[in-house]
Amino acid sequence: MTQTSRRTVLAALATAAVSGPLLTGVGASPAYAADDYASNTDLYTQLAGREGLDFARRYKRHETFDNSLGTVYRYPRTAIMALHGGGIEPGTSELCLGIAGYHPATFAVTPAGGPVYDYWMFEGLLSTGNGTMHVTASHCDDTVALSLAAGSLNVLSIHGCRADQTSAPANRPEAVVVGGRNDRFKQLLHSAFGAAGFQTIDGSTLPDLAGVQTQNIANRTLLGMGGQLEITTELRESMFGTFTRAGRPGSTNAVFDSFVGAARTAIANLEATAEQIIL
After folding, report:
1. Backbone dihedral angles phi then psi of residue 100, each to the nearest 5 degrees
2. Is the pLDDT of residue 40 over 90?
3. Alpha helices in the chain (DSSP H)
4. Nearest residue to 89 via CA among 161, 7, 185, 174
5. Could you tell me which residue, 39 or 276, shows the higher pLDDT?
6. pTM: predicted TM-score of the whole model, two decimal places
7. What was the pLDDT predicted at 276?
8. Is the pLDDT of residue 31 over 90?
């Protein structure tokens, strides 16, 4: 059985802070052809003064406090992220909040008394054309997002995709592609979603949706690996009574609840494994 020591965690955090090329400036990778912005910093710079109008950032970091001499309190383990929320990949903001343990309309802890997780999301607020603000996951350099990932053992990153980008059959386009570098997490996600009746696809069969790049925010964790979900438009649409930015938070349905519950089950099962124990 593998256990993680606090010294190992702190060393990994220090390494993560200084390793790897910066996503802006010298050594930065060029943006994908579909991206208008090379990074979040590039977007924030070019759209200066437009936050709250064209785009928004929302996040929550839960307070951790340990002033006990003899008791070790739980270390933050999992953060949930939606890099392309709002109108960019519709439904992912609401799923991010739901999986983090918050009702997307009221922000009430849901289920009551259930575990809650740190979260971060970037959202497009335009009436149309939000796709121009897509920044690919390996170029995300938002400082809060990076710090959340670097301070967590796990990240579950929520994305949207089209059915024709996947291997889902034409007569059943509702599917979720499970990716990321954490194979155990992927297995647990496949299992939980399958048990809930959802069609899952292995991200390793779809390189463009695999989420295995080391610079992908999902994998910039203390363990150097995480999980990524690419959810088809048809499946996301089935989770809401009204599929608009204003209508989605208050119109989640049983499909949404089932999907959120399955994701939370997979997270709970992951956090119960030996690799998640910090001494």
Report:
1. -70, -15
2. yes
3. 6-18, 40-46, 92-100, 143-150, 183-195, 233-237, 254-271
4. 161
5. 39
6. 0.88
7. 87
8. no
Cβ–Cβ under 8 Å, residues 185 and 160 = no
Question: Residue 17 above 80 pLDDT?
Answer: no
The pair of structure tokens assigned to 209 is 């949706």
Q: How many CB atoms lie within 10 A of CB 126?
A: 17
Contact 62, 118 (CB under 8 A): yes
Q: From 2.40.10.120, 1.20.1250.20, 3.40.50.740, 3.40.630.100, which CATH number describes the 6-62+74-276 domain?
A: 3.40.630.100
Half-sphere exposure of 19 (CA within 13 A, CB side): 13
Residue 242's pLDDT is what?
Answer: 98
pLDDT of residue 22: 37
Q: Is the pLDDT of residue 249 over 60?
A: yes
CA distance 254 to 91: 15
| 204 φ, ψ (degrees, to nearest 5) | -65, -15
**Residues 6 or more apart in contact with residue 78 via CB below 8 angstroms:** 117, 118, 152, 153, 154, 155, 156, 267, 270, 271
Quote the tokens at residue 80. 């949930």
Domain residue limits, the chain: 6-62+74-276
Q: 118-124 and 55-60: which strand pairing?
A: antiparallel
